[in-house]
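User: Sequence for Drug/metabolite transporter superfamily below. Tokens please.
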Amino acid sequence: MSRPKSPDSPLIHRNLQDIENYGSMQTRQDDVAITNEPLSFTANNAGMLLIIYSQFFFASMDISVKLLNALEPPVHTLQIVLIRMSITFVCCEIYMTVTGIPDPIAGPKGVRMILLIRGITGFFGLSGMYWSLQYLSVADATVLVFLTPLTTALAGSVFLKESYSVKQAVAGAFSLLGVVLIGRPAFLFGSLDGIPQGLPAAAPGQRLAGVGACMVSVLGNTGAYTSIRAIGKRAHPMHVMTYFSLWCTIVSSLGMVVFDIPVVYPTSWMWILLLLMVGVFGFVAQTLLTMGLQRETVSRGVTGMYAQVLFVVVLERLFFGVIPSLLSVLGAAIIMSSALYVVMKKAETSPRQYC
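Assistant: Structure tokens for Drug/metabolite transporter superfamily:
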């Protein structure tokens, strides 16, 4: 029995005959041939796998930012955003110029306003996360920012008219529980066990500021991820990345001028290396995430983002000496089980989504 379709959202262009489709490198004949054959597990879940891969690079980027904040003199959040997104913008423009992608700066007609919204909201999502890392551990910040899947799924349902099943909601709630068990934020558990040893403890006021920064990041990410899904395959992933990096560069530059923030110059090779790592990891992560979200619904796609917590636990152990507790292991098991359930559910119910 077929399920009734949700009413179309004005943000999603359903007629793709008169616009460029950047969603596949294959010909339409190949696509037709493929639809007559059963898809492999990897092909059927390509979007989810790309999102999971991106989370490793996001976790690596956050660890790099945390290490950068521990150096002297500290680098302001806006300067980190400026340097990272400048690198991303240059990489995007070089890639599109070499490969001959049309409209490398302005982007395709018909989606430029949505691209602009993605760029501006993405700035607040990124800067909020970086700011919070000055006062919170990576685990605590990740826990708070992972409110984003819940708010994004709701936004996708309201603005994009996407379905959001009860089973997806339950899986998301269990995943969020797993995130909390791994991060063990002090404001919930009344303990500092989740903060890496050897890092300076933040004062209550600073910690509250870090929590507020995470909330700004949640709202920014919600707008960014919803915009990416609304754009869909009407723009190349590099177009989305270009707008994001360009507006982050513009806004962070203006912010440094308006608030008279001094520029911190390199004082060691480690300073330069960490900034380069932030830029490169961020570029790779954002590219993979954009490609993944273009292939997945918002509500399902953001579920794969919970994998970042697993990567954070491993990397914090390596760099800060944090040993996962039994609660962390339990949380990891819950996250993996929930993600696997969502992936297998799609494989059973929608084998022809790539037609």
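The longest helix spans residues 204-231.
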